Amino acid sequence: MKTYDVCIIGGGVTGAAIARELSRYRVSIALLEKEAELAFGVSKSNSGIIHPGTQNPPDSLKGRLCVQGNRLIRSLARELGVHFVEVGELIVISDLQDLPQLQAIKADAEKLGVPGLRIVDRAWLAEHEPNLSPDIPAALFAPTAGIISPYRLVYDLAENAARNGVEFFTGHPVMGITRVETGFVLQTPQRNFHTRFVINAAGLFADEISRLIGVDDFTITPRLGEEYLLDKKREFTTHHLIFPLPTPESKGILIIKTSDGNPMIGPTARSTTDKTDLATTDEGLRKVLQNVQQLVPCLHERDIIAYFAGLRPAAGDDFIIRHEGRAPGFINVVGIQSPGLTAAPAIACMVAGLLKKAGLTLHRKWFFHGRRPASVHLFAIPFSQTEKLIQKDPAYGDIVCRCEMVSSKEIRDAIRRGAKTLDGVKFRTRAQAGRCHGGFCTTRIMKILMDELHLPVMAVSKRGPGSELILGSRDHA
Amino acid sequence: MRSRELVIVGGGPAGLAAALAAHEHGIRDILLLERDQCLGGILNQCIHPGFGLHYFKETLTGPEYAERFIQRVLAIPEIEISLRSFAVKLDSKKTLTYLTPGKLETLSARAVIMATGCRERTREMIHIPGTRPAGIFPAGLAQKMINLEGWLPGREIVIVGSGDIGLIMARRLTLEGARVKAVIEIQKESRGLVRNVTQCLEDFNIPLYLRHRIVKIHGRNRVEKIEAAEVNDELLEIPGSRFEMACDTLLVSVGLIPENELIEMAGAEIDPATNTPKTESLNHTSIPGLFTCGNAFKIYDLADGVTKDSLLAGQQAAEFIRSAS
User: Fold this and answer.
1) Are B19 and B79 within 8 A, CB to CB?
2) Residue A475: what pLDDT?
């Protein structure tokens, strides 16, 4: 059986970024993901913020990798054709008495090398963020903060890694790991994978994976966050990412711009022991609304079109990224909570360094295909461009999702690039993500999935096995 | 850029009636845009009887009701029908852009009637806490799955909201062999027509829980159960009244919202509470020559009412075009 040089466990942004970074080198790589598609774990609930590196202790791994990642993500986004916008962030205070705290955040961030920070006053805020509450006297402005689509970053990283030879196995949960002379054998229900090196990027389940080889000195304690998405009509209500003063537990409840246009408010922060608990609550909603209305009073409950909960995979305060001396060849990349998305490209470089130190020879490939053409999103381009696309392929004029303006061509492309489920189509294209929530387009998308993947209707699912939509069909009568 | 006398967006009962009336009142250049592959709109999936009692004095199914108007429209050569045509932009000068397979077209119209119907309020809009598994469907989507596609979306069903679509779906699912365990309504009375409560619930012994709400949805991949509770006059949960109900499907039938995003884009004033145009008179918007009719103007109980008022919209648009020329 083939022995891979590296097996990555976990297909979130961390695993995908590592896969893409390592695909520059002449090594054989497999990535194993337990869910039906990539980005279906922690990454799917990510808010898409590219943090500037404020709000992290200056001596933390998080802080260092965040600032590096913020720099790296710009070229990465260009290479992969993922839309990145540097919108800037404001950390606001409600009382001038808190000004010293802002100055302390600024000083810490400057130690980490965060550029362009300055304290802005009421007059500046009135001009640049007019819907902000007039009670807010000052803010720390961090111009290098940005936004990106977290799922599309994962999918495009993975697509590019695959183009450069990485093999992806979705629906392959790792159930056991044995150490052998040549490295490790990873057991999945379908088959075993032999590999010299293992990278554990299993997010919420990273502690369970690590325990399989006997490293058990950390525990993932999920922290649940509820997020509420607003109607696209609210896109320009705010112009920056807006943060309150952070507390020791969290960055607080934010008003977030997203790369799709819909503002997002949240998250809450509640520790849980259940790694599958993704329930939202009435209390969460009330708390989020109350908090953001203090920052931007014109936001209203009826602006909310969607909500969800995500789990942050916390393992103590900082990231844990290390080669395990007790199990040579095994690298843990765990506890990657915020600012993990920002840090992902820097984490990937760090992991490449750890592999090299652990004895993996990394020679660059003669031909590395680092660029991929940007995926088309009609909602993001001017009509003149849409017109040209329709002339090239009439299916761009065949609109399936009315709320987000997604054509059948975009949906078929997404499926050909790896979408297998309704959520996979939604995360890639935004079809069903608008205000009607798929009320009008779900059946059409299901039929396209059936057609492209040759599935019977009862096999079409929301997010993989067990989440099928249809429980009976006349086709089978 | 081509110019047209009248553009009607939407080929359901409202758009069809408006087109017929505009033609009757002398308009000879009418373009009717329909995003679906056929005319009739939502009536195509409403295979139950009860349509036409007022307008035709007989009872018809939705498709039969639509067919009467479709045949009349198709017989008029001055009404040009463009199917699979999706309006994407409208401005205050009544310049309209639409996409259709193979073409992006921008044209200017002397009058525009938006007969864009409505969408269903979603689970998200009423904030039902809990998880987000497969098996939560807007009632109208479930209706489409069963009646147009022949797909059964669930076997053990709870319906939240007692709007007419929910009531009709309770009966429809029962006839298809599913078990409808409850209809849960937060208000003191059903929101649907009395005849639907009788014919769709009582006749099938489906319990209606008034003054109840769903307090949590359970299930990771597929709906597994819901928790419901009784509410007090402030619509807050009465402590101790919580109970669970196992089900694989939750249908949401909690009201309709007019679809007016395009007229809002054009700059017409919209009441944010109802998503309807702010206006004093039927079918009008704050932009002269831009009309809305049918469920886009306000939510109607019956298709017959849509037809009656939309015929007027066609006449109003014709009069506007004539007075402006």
Assistant:
1) yes
2) 65
Does A475 contact B at CB distance below 8 Å?
yes
Between CA A429 and CA A342 the distance in angstroms is 22
Domain A83-148+221-308 sits in which CATH superfamily?
D-Amino Acid Oxidase, subunit A, domain 2 (3.30.9.10)
* Both tokens assigned to A21: 């970074």
pLDDT band at A477, cuts 50/70/90? very low
d(CA B277, CA B268): 7
Inter-chain residue contact A443 with B145, CB threshold 8 Å:
yes
Q: Are B119 and A440 in contact (CB < 8 Å)?
A: yes
A172 is catalytic: no
DSSP of B302-316: -HHHHHHHHHHHHHH
What pLDDT sits at residue B188? 95
Partner A contacted by B129 (CB < 8 A): yes
Q: Which two tokens stand for residue A466?
A: 């067990």
User: Of residues A51, A172, A240, A323, which has the active-site annotation?
Assistant: A51
How far is it, in rounded angstroms, from Cα B50 to Cα B302? 9
Any A CB within 8 A of B308 CB:
no
d(CA B217, CA B126): 13
H or E stretch covering B5: strand B2-9
- Return the residue of A nearest to B237 by Cα: A282
Both ends of chain B: CA-CA distance in Å? Answer: 20
Domain ranges, ordered by start, for chain A: 3-43+150-220+317-357, 83-148+221-308, 378-476
Q: Which of A290, A254, A249 is nearest to A271 (CA)?
A: A249
Could you give the C-alpha distances from A39 to A72, B49, B74, B216, B293, in angstroms and in order? Answer: 20, 46, 49, 26, 43
Cβ-defined contact of A463 to B149 (cutoff 8 Å): no
Separation CA B230–CA B243 (nearest Å): 9
CA distance B155 to B170: 12
pLDDT in tens, B200-252: 999 999 999 999 999 999 999 999 999 999 999 999 999 999 999 999 999 99
Q: What is the pLDDT of residues A368-378, one digit of tens each?
A: 999 999 999 99
Long-range residue pairs from A160-164, CB within 8 A, at least 24 positions apart, any chain: A160/A20, A160/A23, A160/A79, A160/A80, A160/A369, A160/A370, A160/A371, A160/A372, A161/A16, A161/A19, A161/A20, A161/A22, A161/A23, A161/A29, A161/A31, A163/A369, A163/A372, A164/A20, A164/A23, A164/A24, A164/A365, A164/A368, A164/A369
Q: Work out the minimum CA distance from A397 to partner chain B, whole angstroms.
A: 4
CB A20 within 8 A of CB A165: no
Q: Please name the residue that has the structure tokens 């200056």.
A: A58
What does the DSSP assignment read for B180-239? Answer: EEEEE-SSSS-SS-HHHIIIIIGGGT--EETTEEEEEEE-SSB--EEEEEEB-TTSPBPT
- Please name the CATH architecture into which domain A3-43+150-220+317-357 falls: 3-Layer(bba) Sandwich (3.50)
The Cα B301–Cα B194 span in angstroms is: 12
Which one of B100, B127, B153 has the shortest CB-CB distance to A282? B127
Alpha carbons within 13 angstroms on the beta-carbon side of residue A119 total 16
- B134–A contact, CB cutoff 8 A: yes
Mutate one of B1, B132, B254 to test the A interface: name it (highest A CB count within 10 A): B132
**Distance, CA of B309 to CA of A250 (rounded, Å):** 55
In the block, which residue shows the tokens 């183009």?
A163
CA distance A342 to A346: 8
